[in-house]
Amino acid sequence: MNTEFVIGVDVGTGSVRAGVFDLNGSMAASSTKDIQIWKPQEFFVEQSSDDIWAATSLAIREALGSGTINPQSVIGISFDATCSLVALAEDDKPISVSPTGSSEQNIIVWMDHRAVHEAEEINATRHRMLRFVGKKVSPEMEPPKLLWLKRNMPQTWNNSSKFLDLADFMVYRSTGIDVRSLCTTVCKWAYDGEKGMWDRGFFQKIGLDSLVSQGKIGSRILPMGTHVGNLSEQAAKDFGLTTATKVAVGIIDAHAGGIGVMGMGFNRPPKASQLQTILALIGGTSSCHMAVSARPRFIPGIWGPYPSAMIPGLWLTEGGQSATGSLLDHVIHNNSAYPSLAQEAEKHGQSVYDYLNSILQGIKGRQGKGPQIVKDINILPYFLGNRSPHADPGARGVVNGLTLDESVEKVARLYYATIQSIAYGTRHIIEEMNRHGYRIRRIHACGGGTKNPLWLQEHADITGCKILLPQEPEAVLVGTAMLAAVGAGKFSSIEEASVRMSHIGSRITPERKFGRFHDAKYGVFQRMYNDFKSYQKALEKF
Questions:
Q1: Which domain-ending residue is among 230, 249, 268?
Q2: pTM, to two decimals
């Protein structure tokens, strides 16, 4: 039997993952390779497109080898990536976006916040295009970053030939064809997806019209999963594949996760009325919250509505939390007890997370309580600002309830309170979506956070939503593989692929008995932000 395979490549914040899938959505092989990150200054985060390409090549080759996959059986490939900005010179070589001047550092990573001032200026224009980003662009989006480059790095600005979203760069380098994804351009570049054109008035208003007139941000915008072309000879050589492999238009990583889980539990492509009761939650370094509807829903502080940015023909609403997995890592690592914590976890043959969960389970057992064991620790999790629904990049983290206790048990409690705060943030986003027409009752979840049972149960209990997990845990890779399958002509649509290649793995049901406690602590969570803003205001003149 000649099995056909497709490859999904996920370029995350810290690594590249390649997954080889059959057309039922089963993973045949995978590989992960780390990628470099530079942080030359506070709020600056940079990467290298050459480093990412090399890591991708190694990951694909290793996946093919580990699964003994015949390269000729790979019929399609597609890419998802973080919404990071890639700069290329005339010869398609990297050009520096870094204050270090290093040409290797040619990517401004999504989480880079150097362009906060430029984002504020763009928002002050009140241009109509801002309606489609919750009335405020984020410094994580591309227009503020580009405006920062124009002002601060004129040599890079003048000598660049192309600026691309990272997923689009991967397609370009794979094929030599400059095609941009409807997903990346609508969500992160202020492309007018409704009219199918760049709004020249918007770019003129913010001083970036040359990007459109000189074609530096692309002129050919296509839906995700569209067949672009086949792998070039060089790309095929780099990947260990053949030039017969078809390349499909890519997507932002979180949106790939949304595609990868939205079709779970359906026997046929679901209707819009069914989908608007579902939230796709992609939990990783940050978290994204995706919902779709038949008509546009304008929700202040929440990105979108974006036309056809995830599910063709439907409007996407996108909430998000800028620091979730990265925040948990920060809380665990940034204390004096971490060395002994890591040592004990290793001794028990557990991950640090599993070991902390076991400590918390012991505390609950001794005290005969549940989440109330951290009632004295309240956290505002905006360590990297608030993406939704406050849309406040100037927000910061707050921890209430610290003591001089330096024990591992204290770290466990702080970690638990942080998980709760992240879940309260998700509840806040869901409530805002539901206030504006959604009826979200179910969460389809994927990503690193969903591998933590405590994270999952707290999200179920705090939001009141049942959580469904995919049978294939690597749902982001599955979503990207779906695009590859559509591009290879194996499915007629993304909706068909999502039903055929995505399956339910397990369910988490909310424990209602903790509802009153979480309602009370959620009220504290809300007040903490208001209090924080009052502190900022009191000191803003200094």
A1: 249
A2: 0.90
